[in-house]
Design brief:
Shape: globular
Strand order of the largest sheet: 5-6-7-3-8-9
CATH architecture of the largest domain: 3-Layer(aba) Sandwich
Number of strands: 11
Low-confidence stretches: 1-8, 244-255
Structural class: alpha/beta
Mean pLDDT: 84
Number of domains: 2
CATH topology of the largest domain: Rossmann fold
Number of helices: 7
Distance between the termini: 29 Å
Radius of gyration: 19 Å
Helix content: 25-40%
Largest sheet: 6 strands, mixed
Oligomer: single chain
Order of helices and strands: EEEHEEHHHEHEHEEHEE
Length: 255
């Protein structure tokens, strides 16, 4: 295994992966994968369950070892999971400033909570929060140390539709302000299209396809949506006309 973790300067890639391989016993989960994400770039990763998405995210976060290849990334990547993982016995600011001393951590936590719309809630307890508010705290905790790489593992999957839209707006604003490179693992095609600059489709442990979204914001995105669903093996034909693709309803791939 070879992995490097030098701090990258603004303007450089937020993460660079070359020839990544990860296997469990005889089962190869990631096989010779290459990936680059620039600072300020929002990349969504789609793929069927078991294709290696979460394994890749854990490797980038330093939570899993790799068997071959190189990962060059910022010294402090941050992760937001589907479950907010807040400590129920700690106030919100202490959850955000986890691992920091009080003198340094409190003002940074207060500023981070203000950014995610929770100003004045620093001394509240997690049990008093809604699901969306809990994820806002999780985002504040991820961003408080100024990471160069933000890893999102389906953080909005458990939220209702309206809250999810609000979180999409918030995360886009935060990324525009702080300029980390972002990798979002999601099963939701519509979510990927609505908030990302680039969409990658992972298949059999490799990046099988890449689509630019941000540069084509002015065009009809329905063809892209249909193409992504086809890439993911979703049958989008109209039953009354098997030769003609239908306009797909909101579809996400079950985990």
């Amino acid at each position: 295994m070879s992995a490097e973790t030098p701090t990258l300067n603004p303007g450089q890639e937020a993460v660079r992966v070359r020839g990544l391989r990860r296997q469990y016993g005889s089962r190869v989960v990631i096989d010779g994968l290459d990936l680059s994400i620039r600072h300020g770039e929002f990349v969504a990763l789609l793929g069927e369950s078991g294709c290696g998405k979460t394994t890749l995210l854990r490797a980038l976060a330093g939570l899993d070892v790799i068997d071959a290849g190189t990962i060059v990334s910022p010294a402090q990547p941050a992760v937001v999971f589907q479950e907010h993982r807040l400590l129920p016995w700690a106030t919100l600011w202490r959850n955000v400033a986890l691992g920091m001393d009080d003198a340094t951590g409190r003002p940074l936590a207060e500023a981070a909570l203000r950014e995610v719309g929770l100003a004045g809630r620093e001394d509240d307890w997690p049990r008093r929060l809604s699901g969306g508010q809990s994820q806002r705290v999780a985002l504040a905790r991820a961003l408080v140390r100024g990471p160069g790489l933000l890893l999102l593992d389906e953080p909005f999957a458990a939220l209702d539709a309206l809250t999810r839209i609000k979180m999409h707006v918030l995360i886009k604003e935060l990324v525009a302000r702080h300029q980390p490179g972002v990798l979002l693992v999601t099963h939701d095609v519509d979510e990927a299209i609505s908030i990302s600059d680039r969409i990658l489709v992972m298949r059999k442990g490799k990046v099988a396809a890449s689509y630019d979204v941000g540069t084509a914001a002015h065009i009809d995105r329905e063809p892209l949506r249909l193409q992504l669903l086809q890439e993911l093996g979703v049958d989008i034909r109209n039953p009354s006309d098997p030769e003609r693709p239908r306009k797909a309803e909101s579809i996400s791939l079950a985990a």
